[in-house]
Amino acid sequence: MAAINNMLRKYGAADPVFGQEELAQIPMAVVGIVMKFFQIVISIVVGMAAGCTPIVGFNMEAGLKKRVKELFTKLLISEATVGAIAFVLVEFLPRRLIAIFGAANESVYYTEFAVKAFRTYLCMIILACVNKACFIFLQAMGKAAASTALSMIREVVFGVGFALILPVFYGLYGVLYSMPVSDILTFVIAIFLIQRTHRELTE
Fold it and tell me: Residue 143, CB half-sphere, CA atoms under 13 Å: how many?
């Protein structure tokens, strides 16, 4: 968030619209709202995955790997469903979401940027939900190193890295692109770990 806020401040000031003093706070305010919504969704995802942790631990110790594999599959499907519902909201009802946060009387620039931010920043929220479930499930299976590495790659390497790099090429909107790009690349790695975990549980 520190990296994102710094980039919003820097490239917002260089934007022809948000460089104006009276509109300068809009990018940070809007992204703050988008992140609040994202945190609500991720809280649901984390709760579902964390609820599986004791079940995974018990069945792994009991050698019931088939149950763990079935639970892993069901969890991924459930998390993807939560992400799909969130995706529908951000892509088709962004103005409703904006209104919830009391932005009905804001300027047209605020509304336009907020709609763009919701639709761009969270366009890969389904993958974000699956990625988060993968982090927690791997940890529950005792794969702390893989879980930590994947989480650090997502949050630090990709999350901070793209937030710093993309605005250089795409300006203010590059900050919005950083989230979906990070989620896509993390998902590519997560697929490998998911497949390997399924093979191990099958064996």
Answer: 19
